[in-house]
Protein 1
Amino acid sequence: MSNESESLAQIRKSASLNCFALERVIGPCGRTYGSTIGAGTDVLTSKVNLVFSYYPCPDGEQVQMAVFKFSDYALVWWTQLTKTRNNNGEGRVLSWEELKHIMRRCFIPSHYQRELKQRLQRLRQGSRTIEEYYKEMEALIQRADIQEEKDDTLERFIVGLNDNILDVLDLQNYVNLDEALQIAIAIENQQK
């Protein structure tokens, strides 16, 4: 058996062990995951990261596991990418980190991160419930890959609250974001 045949056999073995988990979490990787290709790529990579964090997969097999689920345009793109890399003598994509980098470079516009940060900066509770507002804030922080101190996140949360909630929250004692969130939800429930 050739090395390539052994490698394919190993991929199939790993795929049979982990494919169910990958399918359950991300589905086929050719669909659009979000309103834009950038958002779709972002969501896809986050979901695949989640699978790999819960279902151990050796680094050398992660690319094959992710690509195994490609369909539709993603499969066409992957096939073209591998042909181009082979023709240019670049070799195979060997790690999930490298594949994520390539996908982000190809599918996420350069302005995507800036737009996410701007959306986060402008985010206000508005007509959302506090829980909806908090979840949106957390999702934007994660997708924009913002690393900030917990106090800064707490301040970001408080600044975006509606005045009727903020006025009462200012009179309360809280130490961290979790406490402020719980108090704000209680205030919201009282005001209904």
Protein 2
Amino acid sequence: MGSSAGAVLFYCVSLSVVAAAAVVSSTAAGHRSISETALASSAATATTTSRKLMGADSAAPTCPVRFDQMKGYEALGAKCRNKATVKECCAAFKALACPYNKLLNDADNGCADEMFYFIQTKGKLKPGTIFENCLERPQGLKC
């Protein structure tokens, strides 16, 4: 099995395994967090987002946030490529992602996939870096 096939398989299994946990965690009252399901999107291999595809299916979900225009991906990547600064990496990710936690936790809008696409391409991070380093608890990452 090639590494990209393995990453895709890991992504699919991760999403199916944590789907039930995401439903339970989304009903918890008053907690601002980014779900494990949303973080699992970081494990996907970077692919072109729907905004980049010519003639993409107009019925496909569209994230209302233009993550392609956000700043901070390069700084996040610089902090996360150095294993000695995992705390700084996760703090930088929280600063970038937590304002959008509700959108990122909605699996139907594509926001998590889109944000992680730009983290991987503009921040030059390997798929899964955020998921592997910043998952704080079974429900995800507390903001």
